[in-house]
Amino acid sequence: MSRRLSSTTVTWALTAMRDHGDALSLTYENGEPVWRLSSGDRISPRTAQRIISCVDVRSSNDVLFSGMPAQTYRAR
């Protein structure tokens, strides 16, 4: 069931990114990574990793430090 929920969330988030122009953003709160769509919806780190691994999702190349993930991702 967890896999199905995650797939549903990935599909929902990708639709928001493609159809509504939402971006997936990474910030840190209390030293922990927090992923959100620009609409404000929070995305789990596991789901975010699945989203950014999709071939039609690209980073905006806004990395603050070498070896760290980009902070913004968009769908083509």
Structure, described:
The protein has 76 residues and is α+β, with helices and mostly antiparallel strands. The chain is built from 2 helices and 5 strands. A hairpin with a 4-residue loop joins β2 and β3. The N and C termini lie far apart (29 Å).
List the helices and strands and how they pair.
Blueprint (H helix, E strand, L loop, with lengths): L1 H19 L3 E6 L2 E6 L4 E2 L1 H8 L4 E3 L12 E4 L1
Antiparallel strand pairs: 1-2, 1-5, 2-3, 4-5
**H/E topology pattern:** HEEEHEE
Strand content: 25-35%
- Rg, nearest Å: 12 Å
As a percent range, the share of helical residues equals 25-40%
What brief labels describe this structure?
2 helices; five-stranded antiparallel beta sheet; globular; 76 residues; alpha+beta
